[in-house]
Structure prediction request, 264 residues.
Amino acid sequence: MLSRLTRPQAVAVCALPVVALIATAAFAPLPFSVAQPGSTANVLGSFKGSQVITVSGTPVRHTSGQLRMTTIVATGPDAHVSLADVIDGWFATDRAIMPRDAVYPSGDTVKEIERHNSEQMKQSQDAATEAALKYLGRSGDKNIKVSLKLADIGGPSAGLLFTLGIIDKLNGDGAGGDLTGGRTIAGTGTIDADGTVGAVGGVALKTQAARRDGATVFVVPKAECADAKAELPKGLRLIPVTTLKGAVNALTALEKGKGSIPSC
Prediction:
């Protein structure tokens, strides 16, 4: 007859596979990426030695203040992310754990991802130029040439800031002043040629990058207000927008100190 295990012995035996599973999970790669605040770039100035926005064929204004597009940095698609990394990032305010497929399309190689991001950036730049010129009523002016350059940064999330930068360089606030009002304004958001602003993700990390680099105002797609407020740095004001017109109107009202300014 088999002898029965005592309670402590039974617990010890049952615990063995649990411990083994935890140990395996702790060191096994998991399908997540760890993201953190990335670099920001003033689209009204230069980045890595090159002017971000160059306009020819029409007079260009001298601008003050800054319009800073924001980024996040995530571990690569082939990076080893362990359970310990996930737990550590889960409780950190300057990091976020994101499903890898939400950051990188599933099955893509690093080169394919880089190519995809470059294509998205090019489409974003084309849409930003079209949206800005359409807003200014100059979309039919074939003399105006706009060149946008942002080295080593891909994706569509700089679209809104590119558009605002072009408008500031060509028209400012429309009354001789700067759209920025001399402030350091940051933001994120995609842009369609018709001026629709879209969500991008990673906003809670981007607000931290913006404040770190001196911004006091952050223009955010309205759909991402909750995310932006989640870890909002002290001293950073959120302005939610859904359209280019709404963004320009809000910044103009802020610059002039009168009018309606939306908030999250």
